[in-house]
Design brief:
The structure is a single chain. With 596 residues, the chain is of the alpha/beta class. The chain has 2 domains: 298 residues, Nitrilase/N-carbamoyl-D-aminoacid amidohydrolase, CATH 3.60.110; 252 residues, Rossmann fold (3-Layer(aba) Sandwich), CATH 3.40.50.620. It contains 17 helices and 20 strands. The chain has a 7-stranded mixed sheet. It has a 7-stranded mixed sheet with strand order 6-7-8-9-12-13-16, covered by helices on one side. A 4-stranded parallel sheet has the order 19-18-17-20, sandwiched between helices. The radius of gyration is 26 Å and the shape is globular. The termini are far apart.
């Protein structure tokens, strides 16, 4: 490739492991070598690349912060690079800073608000949604500038620093880092580009907002704006990558999602930009996309919000959770229902069929078609499969607890079966040395259609933020991929078409007590993600009685969600860090406005 005269910036789209300073250093070195070999002048990492994002309370350990900075500063590289790292506090009793250091050879010097290699510190610290950065970091009050960095002068920002200017933060901060850089330009400072080291969490439609921010910033600054975004899963948070470069005209170049690699950005010729997938043997590469060029009139809506994106997200979440936790195998219950079938598909794509054990646990209420459907899914996916009936245990427990169960609600008896299945799954999990995963979806979890210490028993919940109708869409996605390669679709027609049921009682169906799932999903989205109260939901056209019932069920079952295993966040508001409802509460829902 013949690069232009102005300059080539390499964006390192990296999948770090939180806390693994030596491992992350090696990953950065591998990407830096790829960038250098391709002719990059300077490289830019993601936010806190050296320690991974989010490090959470590791940042409260002073030795960890110091070790992270030392690991960043001692990276062996011949290519000048801007690396994200925590920085020890400047003064006693202060918190660390979320910073950027310059490493590698270059001519000239670095100027900024700190001595030595530090070229920038994060100014805007988000404390909304899943973020709690004010707990960990001291905000800076000066914007970073890297002079003579590989022959370029670069404005330096970190994630949230760019969002204030575009009006995409919930409230206004007291300063605007982008305006600071724009003011330097008006004063005659020649800035070739502004870079943003980012760890912007994924949710559906998030890329659209990120692109709007980047286009706004490039237009304000009147020079290219480059964003290097983290990729992969860390605990419940997912990062889709999609690093991008945007020019003042609105033209954009976007790296693929769900892949680790290097985006080579030619500042003068967008058409020269290239994507290089990581050559490291353990690199994340779940997606199948390529470099995308967007004209100013294109909004990039085709790049997120699809079932493809959702599928890669949940696969990446489970895969990275296992890999980064040292988990080598998975065991899950197969009921013959849609949720367990899709969870099995996710598991096989995440860790490989040879590392997944499926377990059918029929009771006296299990239909033959459910038993057959579970076997079909297991055999189509090629996972190991066992049938372990719970009838004998069920009879024994009912006999032992007969006097107790006779006094209570029928649900007490039904839950015995769910808890026997949880006991059985965990026994297989311990015996095989494989992590149990749960199969419940967001719609059921929201309404309490899950049993503590039963079907909620497990270490990870891959579908916890996936609505029921999205589960059906994922089933069709996995089936289409199987058909395309000439394999048997893993979710058969019976599983797709039979009425959803827990099969804990004769002729039981979910819609005996819940609205149809297509209606329920829309009601839950309206409240959880769009913020509508009962009055607002009725105004949207939902039945008043159904609204009150759904909201009351949601509130009554908060105790279950406090005890659920982690799962990947794929919506704009998932149960977990972004959902902080009181555990012991009673809210009086109203469907009409009160006028005083």
């Amino acid at each position: 490739m013949r690069w232009s005269v102005l300059g080539v910036v390499s964006l390192l789209q990296m999948d770090p492991k939180v806390g693994d300073l030596s491992g992350n250093s090696l990953r950065i070195q591998g990407l830096l070598e790829q960038a250098r070999s391709a002719g990059g002048q300077v490289a830019v990492s993601t936010e806190l690349a050296i320690c991974g994002y989010p490090p959470r309370d590791l940042l409260l350990e002073s030795d960890f912060v110091k070790s992270a900075m030392e690991a960043a500063l001692t990276l062996p590289t011949a290519l000048p690079a801007l690396i994200g790292t925590p920085l020890p506090p400047d003064e006693p009793r202060q918190r660390p800073a979320n910073g950027v250091v310059r490493v590698g050879s270059s001519s000239g010097t670095i100027t900024g608000h700190a001595e030595g290699h530090v070229v920038g510190k994060k100014q805007l610290l988000p404390t909304y949604d899943v973020f709690d950065e004010a707990r960990y970091f001291e905000p800076s009050n000066r914007t970073g500038l890297a002079r003579s960095c590989g022959g370029l002068t670069l404005g330096v920002t970190i994630c949230e620093d760019a969002w204030q200017s575009a009006g995409k933060t919930p409230s206004s901060y007291q300063q605007d880092p982008i305006e600071h850089i724009a003011e330097w330009g008006r004063q005659g400072v020649e800035i070739h580009a502004t870079v943003n080291l980012s760890a912007s969490p994924f949710h559906t439609q998030k890329f659209q907002t990120r692109l709007e921010v980047a286009r706004h910033v490039a237009a304000v600054l009147q020079h290219p704006f480059l964003l290097a975004n983290q990729v992969g899963g860390n605990d419940d948070l997912l990062f889709d990558g999609r690093s991008l470069a945007v020019w003042p005209s609105g033209r954009a170049v976007v790296a693929p999602a769900w892949q680790e690699g290097v985006l080579m950005v030619d500042l003068d010729k967008p058409e020269n930009c290239q994507w290089m997938a990581s050559t490291q043997t353990n690199a994340l590469c779940k997606g199948e996309g390529t470099l995308v060029h967007l004209e100013p009139s294109e909004d990039g809506s085709q790049l997120d919000g699809s079932t493809d994106d959702l599928a890669y997200a949940v696969i990446t979440g489970l895969s990275d959770y296992c890999r980064k936790s040292g988990i080598n195998g998975i065991v899950l219950g197969l009921s013959g229902g849609i949720d367990s079938a899709v969870a099995a598909c996710v598991a096989v794509h995440a860790v490989g069929a040879e590392n997944v054990s499926g377990l059918a646990m029929p009771s006296r209420f299990s239909s033959q078609h459910s038993i057959d459907d579970a076997a079909h899914t297991a055999h189509a996916l090629g996972l190991s499969y066992a049938v372990h009936p719970i009838g004998g245990m069920h009879d024994a427990v009912e006999h032992e607890l007969a006097s107790v169960l006779a006094k209570g609600h029928a649900v007490a008896g039904e839950n015995v079966q769910a808890r026997l299945r949880g006991l059985t799954v965990m026994a297989y999990s311990n015996a095989l040395g494989r992590m149990a995963v749960t199969t419940g979806n967001k719609s059921e979890i929201a309404q309490g259609y899950c049993t503590l210490y039963g079907d909620m028993a497990g270490g990870y919940a891959p579908l916890a933020d996936v609505y029921k109708m999205e589960v059906y869409a994922l089933a069709e996605w996995f089936n289409a991929r199987a058909s395309a390669r000439g394999a048997t679709p893993p979710v058969n027609e019976s599983t797709l078409t039979k009425p959803p049921s827990a099969e804990l009682a004769p002729n039981q169906q979910d819609d005996d007590t819940l609205p149809p799932y297509d209606v329920l999903d829309n009601m839950l989205r309206a409240h959880i993600e769009d913020g509508h109260d009962a009055h607002g939901m009725v105004a949207l056209g939902f039945d008043e009685a159904a609204v009150l019932d759904v909201l009351q069920r949601l509130e009554r079952n908060e105790h279950k969600r406090w005890q659920m295993p982690p799962g990947p966040r794929v919506s704009s508001r998932a149960f977990g860090q972004g959902w902080r409802r009181p555990l012991a509460s009673h809210h009086q829902w109203r469907t009409q406005e009160e006028h005083r």
